[in-house]
Amino acid sequence: MNRLRLVMMGTGPFAVPTFRSLLASPHEVVCLVTRPDHSAHSRKPAPLNPVRRAAPDGLPVLDPEDANSLETRQRLAAWRPDLLVVCDFGQILSPETLGMAPLGGINLHGSLLPKFRGAAPVNWALRLGEAETGVSVIHMTARLDAGPCLVQMRTPIAWEEDAVQLEQRLALLGVDAVRRAIELLMQWDRSAPLGEPQDGRLATRAPRLSKQDGRVDWNQSAREIYNQVRAFKPWPGTFTLLHRGDGQEPLRLILESVEVSGEMLDTPGTSGPSAPGQIVHSDSSRLEVATSQGRIALRRVQPAGKRVMEIDEFLRGHHVPVGARLG
Predict the structure, then answer these.
(1) Can you name the residues that pair with 106 across neighbouring β-strands?
(2) Other beta carbons within 10 Å of 300
(3) Neighbouring C-beta atoms of residue 46, cutoff 10 Å
(4) Which of 212, 241, 216, 205 is nearest to 326 (CA)?
(5) Domain chopping of the chain, boundaries
(6) Identical fold at 5-202 and 211-326?
(7) Could you report the per-residue pLDDT of 212-252, keeping only the tens digit for each?
(8) Tens of pLDDT, residues 28-75
(9) 271 has pLDDT over 80
(10) CA nearest 72: which of 98, 38, 51, 50?
């Protein structure tokens, strides 16, 4: 079998490079299955999701509410796919759905499985300060992200990289990983053990993000808060309250960009006697905040209801004295 009939199943931007690569490959993409596009305003059409936007004219597109329904399985079976290619799709496939294709399904995941199983692997790798990550292509089972690994590719995480940048890089890395996995499946006799089983004892979770994940706990170290800011872009963002005193309401701030201040990044006590969350340096162009270990300098912030500002612009319009408190 030199040419496979593929069904692409994807929704988000992480899947787009793989989708485009499959369309340009010798294989035939017979159908795209994606999540429905719902509009928050019923009178306005919903914006097309990234994978749907990348679909060429004439390619059949299915957008079922339930990818595992009998109707969806019957429509998939009519396309006689050899393999389902799943990436950033948003629904868990049942064994019956995977059984629609003789080779089953493969899934491109943005971590080195079994680490960071779940919906937000890129975000949690950054949040927890990982120095390395990568992509995994698994042969899918009914358990979430638990199938045997066919291909893994590794990459270091740059200190300044945020979630948007890292996800884009991993999406490109995944193109070759999926290509290699398909080559393995084309050589498979459909009976021999396939891939490397995952060790469930090493599994860690990467659950879907919630708004509260972005709230800053200033009792963390400066390094941990720096990781939080870069991990939770573009959503939920990283936010805190600035308590200005003098009877003013606390001001909600989104921390758009921060830096770890000082050379002794992880040495306890580098914040001096100040309490975590307390402003320890304030002048016309710099604002530094104490943490449990080290200081954080705020570089760009977004006050509630306003646009993102460089810190010097923010300080021109807001008096923030040393001793003021965040949190």
Answers:
(1) 85, 139
(2) 16
(3) 12
(4) 241
(5) 5-202, 211-326
(6) no
(7) 999 999 999 999 999 999 999 999 999 999 997 777 899 99
(8) 999 999 999 875 455 566 788 999 999 999 999 999 999 999 999 999
(9) no
(10) 98
Alpha-carbon torsion angle 112, 113, 114, 115, nearest 10:
40
What is the CATH topology of the domain spanning 211-326?
Answer: Methionyl-tRNA Fmet Formyltransferase; Chain A, domain 2 (3.10.25)
Torsion of CA 116, 117, 123, 126, to 10 degrees: 0
Give the residue among 60, 109, 119 at the shortest CA–CA distance from 87: 109
The enclosing H or E element of 86 equals: strand 83-87
Angle at 241 between CA 236 and CA 242, to 5 degrees: 140
* Structure-block tokens of residue 226: 């720096």
Q: Angle at Cα 65 formed by Cα 61 and Cα 66, nearest 5°?
A: 100
Distance separating alpha carbons of residues 169 and 164, to the nearest angstrom: 9
Total length of the chain: 327
Tell me the residue type at 298: L
Q: Which residues contact 206 (CB under 8 A, 6 or more apart)?
A: 111, 116, 117, 118, 119, 120, 121, 123, 124, 125
- CA pseudo-torsion sign 86, 91, 95, 98: negative
Architecture (CATH level 2) of domain 5-202: 3-Layer(aba) Sandwich (3.40)
- Pair 101, 73: CB distance under 8 Å: no
